[in-house]
Prior knowledge:
Blueprint: H1 5-21, H2 27-33, H3 40-52, E1 56-57, E2 66-67, H4 69-82, H5 99-114, E3 117-121, E4 129-139, E5 142-149, E6 154-160, H6 167-181, E7 184-185, H7 186-196, H8 198-212, H9 217-221, E8 224-227, H10 241-252, H11 254-263, E9 271-274, E10 286-295, E11 298-308, H12 313-332
Antiparallel strand pairs: 1-2, 3-8, 3-11, 4-5, 4-7, 5-6, 9-10, 10-11
Amino acid sequence: MELTHRDYDILNATVVSYIKTATPIGSRTITKQFDFGLSPATIRNIMADLEDLGFLSQPHTSAGRIPTEKAYRYYVDQLLEENEPIEIEAYKFTKNDDLKSLLHNTSKILSLLSRYTSIVMAPQFNSMLFKHIKFISLRKNVVLAILVNSDGNPYNKTFELDETLSQKELDRFSAILNDRFSNKSLDDIKKSIFKEMNEEKKRYEQLLNKVFDFNKKNIQENQLFVEGTTNIMDLPEFTDVEKIKSLFRAFEEKFTLIKLLDRCLFSEGPQVLIGSENPFLEANECSLVISSFKLGGKEAGAIGIIGPIRMEYHRVISLVDYAAKMLTKAHQN
């Protein structure tokens, strides 16, 4: 059901007031804070109608009302349509910042400015751009692969193969890969290799599969930055010790956080998951605002802010949107 302008004004006022105070909102509060030209009785009737529609609920201990998840979703959908970019003065890059420094810096700034918890996911391993690949024979059937990405960060992995490849063969194959596929991602290399290198593919197929399976859980977890986990302890929603413990356990499950961010990686613009819309944080009564950033024109990583359902959505959506655009721009430069 579509709300009238008057309904939306009262709903919006209730949501905004509750976000600020964390206390149930009554008609007298709205009358004092907003100039709608309506009497408290009229506002009270509208709030009762909004409650019947599932937008508001009334704690039995209070005469005031609080927004439901349905109310927040309606409110947020309007914000996303009207989203106005902001500039963050504190959000600065230095010319020599590598990607890891940029992401770590972004995570810190977002938690500081939002006063919530920030999460930043670096590009997944297979989507990183690599400038150099080297294979070293350690012993019979055992090979060390060294992959250096475009920021100069090395990734090492030891593989066990079914057959022995000499160091000469490994050097030859490294040279081919570096010559043809430097500054491409593993995903792009994988697509190209099976089109262009039929002969080499047969000989080095197992080695290639080991490289393409490089994206292990521990590598992914090192690509996630979480800041401001203690910020939520100052919020009235999280005074319960068990709830805090549950949320901190969730923050420690980095691999699950990565899967959560991954779901929104290819969505356009900021995405907002409110309360039960987010199965990972549903029990903790949290919302997540997330946006992806791009490297080389492709979605590569994601940034987000976790806070209470009673989140300052207007500010947080703008923060996340701006930071994602700045990350994309910074790495282009």
